[in-house]
Amino acid sequence: MSVLLYHLVCPAKYRKVVFTKDVDKELKEICLEISKRYEISFIEIGTDDNHVHFLLQTVPMYSPSRLSQVVKSITAREMFRRVPEVKKKLWGGEFWTKGYFINTVSEHGNEEVIRKYVREQGREEEYRQIHRPQLDFFDS
User: What is the DSSP string of 24-57?
Assistant: First the structure.
């Protein structure tokens, strides 16, 4: 049995601020539907104003690029269909930037840290608390 966890970060096109509470809610519903059709589990989804962090679990047959392609293409298409006002903000007709960040996450190492980081997106105070020990290390 394989357990593959990925941390995927996708910025909105032009880094536009599009992730309102309504858009966040729709995104999570779309991701639930993706998980029913594909072997992708969304462990956590954290939105900030202009980007999204996903903590995903999938099977080895999906490469990181295929995983990001599936998530980005389906969420973009469905978001424009369900929330048409977002398409007006993103006048170029694309929801996501071409690029993305993806990294593996160790189930036994730092999954909980990444899980909390993804969950707390958009909450600046919690973000500072998570990263405070690292800042103290460099301040000394």
Answer: HHHHHHHHHHHHHHSSEEEEEEEE-SSEEEEEEE
